[in-house]
Automatic annotation (TrEMBL):
The lineage of its organism: Eukaryota, Fungi, Dikarya, Basidiomycota, Agaricomycotina. InterPro entries: Kinase-like_dom_sf, Prot_kinase_dom, Protein_kinase_ATP_BS, Ser/Thr-specific_kinases, Ser/Thr_kinase_AS. This is non-specific serine/threonine protein kinase. Belongs to the protein kinase superfamily. GO terms for cellular component: Golgi apparatus; vacuole. It catalyses: L-seryl-[protein] + ATP = O-phospho-L-seryl-[protein] + ADP + H(+); L-threonyl-[protein] + ATP = O-phospho-L-threonyl-[protein] + ADP + H(+). Residues 177-274 are annotated as: Disordered. GO terms for biological process: regulation of vacuole fusion, non-autophagic; vacuolar protein processing. Residues 43-467 form the Protein kinase domain. Coiled coil: none annotated. One of its GO terms (molecular function) is protein serine/threonine kinase activity.
């Protein structure tokens, strides 16, 4: 990624934010509320929940059912941007796990300004917010998690990560066996939602139950009947949204639509799956639990004729408290897969190394970023261990209300140098608050050399060990 490309992306991001801010101001002055029509359904935009470089997240309500969603609106300015957004959607289709966010619906429409497209993602609304919200509340109230509560949240997050690191892709049966496919890093710049695929295989398009299809088969919504009636006068976020509601994408669960915008299986019913809680419960009941040894990427999953499963680990690359939502039951839900890549990536040239550094700088939060992503070396293979480091930083933040490297940032030092040298400390003031086992677990995740860093299975074993000592 060249310096010019980086500047262009930043300019596009600022432009997108300015457009949304202008529409928000127009809404405040001229209209009591905004609406958007997607896939034949009209949604009322209640309020803004958060924003990112190219995206806003809104609280949306289906006008016909009253059901509430988190609506993520992504602006893309070219075909590569659309592909990147669809790869983000595909990532949520790929990883089916109770601790990974699901998607209800999605749509790609023309931007009324004539500059690119808008991608809408309809996601669950988690009213309890995310772990960063909980950390912020602890800071304000001078409280802390109990050690057991913290470890249960950490373990659930690790189980979501395990689903990614243990992913098994469906490939043609004649694909050469490899337990650890390694892809060559691309020379070209990647979009902020890019996924690098292994050259050794290409996962096949698949159908879900009841005719639902892989997002790679989703066409742009360009029917006249489906043209979005979007006034775009969306409200702006209220207050400081850093670390809040940064929802990621997932998979569209919508049957193919006919020209009238109705479901291919339904009888005149708009092409939206989740009309009520009964449908959601039915679909959830059809998905065997992870504890039963199956999810869509499990080595034990059903295999169609002529296909087999190959281990293809993926890395999230932006694990942090702000990307772990809390369900109504208090379970951790990993989200925001825009930075997800095939984990094992061989770096052959300096150009590839610099490209990966630039991608990490854009997509991976600095105070949670693994040291090998700050200074990418040639002749090495980046892998899923980057997530283990981020998990350690996340557990540290749960324990001490901040990243281990926020101190370096506040002191004007180099976060990159601190991370690459493993320079962090457990706060002396909190020495008696948690067990030595918890401190050792954090330290195990934050080993500078990725070759010596434990894998996700070992981290889960260590977590269970500490939990057992707590009774």
């Amino acid at each position: 990624m060249s310096y010019q490309d980086s500047l262009l992306r930043r300019f596009d991001a600022l432009k997108a934010q300015a457009q949304d801010a202008l529409w928000a101001l127009t809404s405040c002055v001229c209209k009591p509320s905004a609406t958007v029509k997607v896939n034949g359904r009209t949604y009322k935009i209640v309020k803004a929940l958060g924003e990112g470089g190219f995206s806003f997240v809104y609280l949306a309500q289906d006008e016909s059912t009253g059901r509430e969603f988190a609506l993520k609106k992504i602006r893309v300015h070219n075909s590569e941007g659309v592909k990147g957004a669809m790869r983000e959607i595909e990532a949520y289709r790929r990883f089916r796990h109770p601790n990974i966010i699901r998607i209800y619906d999605s749509s790609v429409v023309q931007d009324p300004s004539g500059e690119g497209k808008i991608v809408y993602l309809f996601l669950p609304l988690y009213k309890r917010g995310n772990l960063q919200d909980a950390i912020n509340a602890n800071t304000v109230n001078n409280t802390r998690f109990s050690e057991k509560e913290m470890l249960v949240l950490f373990k659930g997050t690790c189980e979501a990560v395990r689903a990614m690191h243990d992913y098994h892709a469906l490939v043609p049966i004649n694909t050469p066996d490899s337990n650890a496919p390694v892809t060559r890093a691309h020379h070209s710049a990647q979009s902020s939602t890019s996924t690098i695929r292994p050259e050794t295989f290409r996962p096949q398009p698949s159908k879900l139950k009841d005719g639902y299809t892989n997002p790679s088969n989703i066409a742009e919504d360009d029917d006249e009947d489906e043209e979005p009636e979007d006034d775009h006068s969306f409200p702006e976020p209220e207050g400081d949204t850093d670390g809040g509601y940064s929802y990621g994408g997932s998979v569209p669960l919508v049957p193919p639509k006919n020209k009238k915008g109705t479901s291919a299986k339904g009888k005149g019913k708009p092409g939206v799956v989740f009309d009520g809680d009964e449908e959601l419960e039915r679909l959830n009941a059809q998905q065997p639990s992870h504890d039963a040894g199956y999810d869509s990427g499990s080595a034990n999953g059903e295999v169609p004729p002529g296909m087999k499963r190959m281990h293809v680990p993926y890395a999230h690359r932006d694990i942090k408290p702000g990307n772990v939502m809390l369900s109504d039951e208090g379970n951790p839900i990993l989200m925001d897969f825009g930075s997800t890549v095939v984990a094992r990536m061989y770096i052959a040239t300096r150009s590839e190394a610099l490209t990966q550094q630039d991608i990490a700088a854009e997509q991976s939060t600095m105070t949670f970023r693994a040291p090998e992503l700050f200074d990418v070396k040639t002749g090495v293979t980046l892998d899923e261990k980057v997530d283990i480091w981020s998990l350690g930083c996340t557990l540290y933040a749960l324990a001490y209300n901040r990243s281990p490297f926020e101190t370096a940032e506040q002191a004007g030092g180099s976060i990159a140098m601190a991370a690459m040298n493993g320079q962090y400390k457990h706060p002396a003031a909190a020495a008696g608050a948690y067990s030595q086992g918890l401190r050792d677990l954090i330290d195990a995740c934050m080993v500078v050399d990725p070759a010596s860093r434990p894998d996700i299975h070992r981290i889960l074993e260590l977590t269970d060990g500490v939990l057992r000592t707590l009774g």
